[in-house]
Amino acid sequence: MIRWLVGGFVVAAVIVLIAALYPNANVADRGPAQVVGGEMPAFSLLPLHRSDVTLSSLRGKDVLVNVWATWCGPCRREMPALAALAKKMGPRLAVVAIDQGEDAQVVSAYVKQFNVDFPIYLDRDQRVGTMLHLVGLPSSFFVDRSGVVRDAVDGEMTYQMMEEKAQRLVAGG
Q1: Which end of the chain is more exposed for a tag (fewer CB within 10 A), N or C?
Q2: pLDDT per position as a tens digit, 67-105
């Protein structure tokens, strides 16, 4: 009897080990990668500050959409790189950021602290996060001028990584 119990535990352990090492779900089927190849979902958000840039006005431009929050450590580390990329790419790439679920005063203080000068939008109900299948923050979406999501990154990017992806986007590939 004990031999059967030990054998059963060994078989169960092997099955658990195999499942952990070889997950059957494709990573591309989860999270932000789900929207790659499709049109960026339509949504309407309030800008943090009065802005002449609206999300619908970005059609016809290559865009980096970053979804973030002030409490998010990786978002805090990534924000200076986003600001530098926005300055470097200038009119070739529009950079916009969408804060998830926070008060305008909190976001405004954060934006001032980091000297962010690209458009910031507020998604108080976090609907955009749901539409874009966010798993965590930050998440970034590289959208071509026709509105198609060409690349998505779940997690923090280095400046080099975001610049390479942005250059590929504006080059049409």
Answers
A1: N
A2: 999 999 999 999 999 999 999 999 999 999 999 999 999
Q: What is the pLDDT of residues 44-72, one digit of tens each?
A: 888 998 776 666 778 899 999 999 999 99
> Angle CA(35)–CA(97)–CA(160) in degrees, nearest 5?
80
Q: How many of the other CB atoms lie within 10 Å of CB of 82?
A: 24
Q: Does domain 28-170 have CATH number 3.40.30.10?
A: yes
Beta-strand ranges (E) seen in 12-93 are 46-47, 63-68
CA-to-CA separations, 100 to 88, 117, 146, in angstroms, rounded: 26, 18, 25
Tell me, what DSSP letter sits at residue 25?
Answer: S
**Burial level of 87, CB count in 10 A (0-12/13-18/19+)?**
exposed
